[in-house]
């Protein structure tokens, strides 16, 4: 056992920290608050191009696709430092973390050539079109159809909760190519340009931080067969394999810890940090953030050793949810009505934490998977 | 980073496991508990096999000592593994024969093996003090929690160097985490096994989602405790890492105690069943060093530089 980064990764972290101190000095002053807001999504467009120029947007991709061929830890250190600052890459973390790798693994040569360079340069946004009104947790119940018509496919259906669809250029979309009875065996992945005729994006007014939800309506959307990723009906495998590590790919505990430090500063100024009750709540929240960190590290260690992903990732995800919730609750408890002011630290963290156990696979789903795959409890 | 056990660690734990199979375990624990006794035999076996020297060894160290404390506690070894394997070596003090008592000036109360111990180490404001104990210094306190307890009032004390108090507390914190870890894991494994075997309403208890989720959450707490504790040992028990590990592990301990007893039903409350051997002892660990509340406040002191409340 060894709980320290290699010298190379430590050196990379300090380079990165220096770089971020300089680059974020202007225009990113409320990183604890504005995750997902329009002003920071705009900021991130410029920022990711700077990162790309430095080779730090896709350092973990293979060199032939615009990557630096770096290891799992370096990639993770990058993600952690970004989340520690409130994720200045904005929605980009999705395409660099898993859309790109999915294309590298399952794409045709033509798809890789046309779609990867814009991601590596930081020129495009992707969004994730999985959920539907009748298919959230039970994703295999999705109904959006893709019917073959000669060389093309015709898409019809509706997606919901699609984050950033209002800003995105492409959607990584799941649609049914088999029958509903096939369940997860009849699903395919489509790489859908959002400017295709018949795609309509409607904003849904939510109150989860500044984040915005969208619906996608697909009416007779005709796409060429080249938009299909991998084999027809094999989409579930692609998602399962590509997203296996991405449950922990967004180190949200790092952002929660950042907010917690900010809240400690707030409480100190307010003369509250010497209060024993307040101290207990801070100690608890910090411990939850740290536990999430070590559990995530454990998963990254597996990945760095190129092992098959194990179900430990679900424990790490559950711990991240617990950490985000604890910091959100603490914020409201200690700040009192000050937390209600829009964009205060308390406000942002609390509203964010409401979605923590729902987005990217709900908390209960993580617990179900732990019960079945780790504890091997009998089926219900 | 490397979350796997090294060859050295595996070899150490295998050897320790063999020794503990012979000299500890539920059966032995029951015999000793009936007499409220310290296991001198186990201690001398551990000493002879070199396990008490692990902390300072070149090819092992504090992390290996923590793994050993965890395993000794899991097997209910009736010795004082935290002072012997961690705290005394960390302070560069010799490890005497027989039990050693750790005490915290700020958290007085009955201590484990206080009646039998001949040496006491007290954490003061800045320095530790060591004191010899005689049987006249101890007043036994009857207790159901698996360890013989006594109040001690030492007469003569000798102060150690400045700063020793914090070092002692940090390693003690890591130590109670390691003890808790070993015991929580056993209590948890036993409960998961019970949930699979016990049939109610024609199905396994563990097939009910209400219980599955509670066990799954418990497993997260256990793993979080484990890796925070190992990491704290690896980092040399810094004030923050040891307080964080203890704040998390002690909260896990509260939850694990409730869940294991709730899920094993009435049988888990009997002396005949093994669960209590771990869960009652856990409460002694829970109470040390001022307990969960003190650990949480220590996180704040170390992280945000606030004076202790
Ligand atoms: C901030 C945010 C961003 C999102 N972004 C995207 C996105 O970009 N793209 C996208 O495709 N989707 C996105 N989602 C949608 C998200 O993936 C779904 O909300 C999620 O999968 C849950 O589905 P649901 O909302 O339909 O809830 P439901 O499936 O109706 O579940 C409701 C509740 O019941 C529980 N539950 C359901 N089934 C079980 C079960 N078997 N056992 C125990 N409990 C169960 C759930 O855990 C949940 O708490 C986003 C959601 C949020 C909150």
List the helices and strands and how they pair.
The complex is a heterodimer of chains A (380) and B (309).
Chain A: H1 7-23, H2 38-54, H3 72-84, H4 92-106, H5 109-121, E1 126-129, E2 145-149, E3 152-160, E4 170-176, E5 187-193, E6 199-204, E7 213-224, E8 228-229, H6 235-243, H7 252-269, H8 276-304, H9 312-335, H10 345-356, H11 363-374
Parallel strand pairs in A: 1-4
Antiparallel strand pairs in A: 2-3, 3-7, 4-5, 5-8, 6-7
Helix pairs in contact in A: 1-3, 3-7, 4-5, 4-6, 7-8, 7-9, 8-9, 9-10, 9-11
Chain B: H1 7-23, H2 26-35, H3 40-48, H4 62-74, H5 81-90, E1 100-104, E2 111-112, E3 119-123, E4 128-132, E5 138-141, E6 149-152, E7 157-159, H6 164-197, E8 199-200, E9 203-204, H7 209-234, H8 239-263, H9 275-287, H10 291-304
Parallel strand pairs in B: 1-3
Antiparallel strand pairs in B: 2-6, 3-4, 4-7, 5-6, 8-9
Helix pairs in contact in B: 1-3, 1-4, 4-5, 4-6, 4-7, 5-6, 6-7, 6-8, 6-9, 7-8, 8-9, 8-10
């Amino acid at each position: 056992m060894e709980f320290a980064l290699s010298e190379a990764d430590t050196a990379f972290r300090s380079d990165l920290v220096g770089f971020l101190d300089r680059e974020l000095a202007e225009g990113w002053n409320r990183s604890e608050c504005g995750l997902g807001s329009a002003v920071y999504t705009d900021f991130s467009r410029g920022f990711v191009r700077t990162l790309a120029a430095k080779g730090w947007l896709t350092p973990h991709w293979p060199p032939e696709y615009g990557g630096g061929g770096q290891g799992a830890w370096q990639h993770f250190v990058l993600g952690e430092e970004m989340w520690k600052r409130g994720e200045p890459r904005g929605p980009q973390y999705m395409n660099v973390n898993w859309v790109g790798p999915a294309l590298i693994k399952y794409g045709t040569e033509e798809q890789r050539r046309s779609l990867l360079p814009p991601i590596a340069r930081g020129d495009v946004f992707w969004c994730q079109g999985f959920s539907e009104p009748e298919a959230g947790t039970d994703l295999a119940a999705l109904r959006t159809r893709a019917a073959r018509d000669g060389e093309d496919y015709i898409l019809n259906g509706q997606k919901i909760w699609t984050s950033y669809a209002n800003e995105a250029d492409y959607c990584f979309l799941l649609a049914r190519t088999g029958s509903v009875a096939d369940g997860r065996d009849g699903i395919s992945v489509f790489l859908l340009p959002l400017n295709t005729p018949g795609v309509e994006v409607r904003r849904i007014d939510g109150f989860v931080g500044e984040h915005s939800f969208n619906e996608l309506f697909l009416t007779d959307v005709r796409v060429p067969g080249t938009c299909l990723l991998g084999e027809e009906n094999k989409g579930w495998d692609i998602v399962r394999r590509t997203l296996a590590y991405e449950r922990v790919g967004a180190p949200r505990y790092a952002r929660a810890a950042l907010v917690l430090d900010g809240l400690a500063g707030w409480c100190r100024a307010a003369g509250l940090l010497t209060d024993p009750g307040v101290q207990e709540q801070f100690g608890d929240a910090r411990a939850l953030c740290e536990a999430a960190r070590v559990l995530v590290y454990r998963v990254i260690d597996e990945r760095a050793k190129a092992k098959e992903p194990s179900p430990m990732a679900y424990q790490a995800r559950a711990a991240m949810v617990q950490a985000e919730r604890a910091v959100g609750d603490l914020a409201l408890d200690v700040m009192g009505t000050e937390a209600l002011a829009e964009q205060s630290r308390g406000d942002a963290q609390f509203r964010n934490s409401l979605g923590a156990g729902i987005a990217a696979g709900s908390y209960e789903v993580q617990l179900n998977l732990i019960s079945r795959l780790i504890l091997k409890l009998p089926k219900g | 980073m490397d979350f796997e056990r090294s060859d050295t660690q595996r070899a150490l734990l295998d050897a320790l496991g063999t020794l503990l199979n012979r000299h500890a375990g539920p059966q032995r624990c029951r015999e000793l508990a009936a007499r409220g006794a310290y296991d001198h035999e186990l201690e001398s076996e551990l000493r002879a096999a070199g396990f008490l020297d692990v902390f300072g060894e070149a090819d092992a160290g504090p992390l290996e000592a923590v793994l050993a404390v965890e395993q000794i506690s899991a097997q209910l070894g009736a010795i004082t593994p935290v002072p012997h394997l961690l705290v005394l070596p960390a302070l560069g003090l010799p490890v005497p024969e027989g039990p050693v008592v750790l005490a915290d000036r700020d958290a007085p109360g009955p201590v484990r093996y206080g009646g039998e111990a001949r040496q006491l180490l007290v954490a003061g404001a800045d320095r530790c003090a060591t004191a010899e104990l005689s049987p006249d210094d101890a007043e036994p306190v009857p207790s159901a929690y698996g360890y013989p307890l006594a109040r001690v009032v030492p007469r003569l004390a000798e102060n150690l160097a400045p700063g020793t108090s914090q070092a002692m507390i940090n390693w003690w914190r890591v130590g109670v985490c390691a003890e808790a870890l070993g015991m929580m894991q056993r209590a948890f494994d036993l409960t998961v096994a019970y949930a699979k075997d016990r049939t109610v309403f024609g199905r396994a208890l563990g097939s009910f989602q209400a219980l599955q989720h509670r066990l799954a959450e418990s497993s997260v707490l256990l793993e979080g405790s484990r890796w925070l504790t190992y990491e704290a040992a690896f980092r040399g028990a810094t004030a923050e890492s040891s307080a964080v590990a203890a704040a998390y592990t002690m909260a896990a301990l509260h939850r694990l105690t409730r869940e294991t007893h709730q899920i094993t039903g009435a049988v888990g409350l009997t002396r005949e069943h093994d669960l209590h051997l771990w869960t009652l002892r856990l409460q002694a660990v829970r109470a040390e060093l001022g307990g969960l509340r003190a650990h949480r406040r220590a996180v704040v002191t170390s992280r945000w530089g606030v004076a202790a409340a």
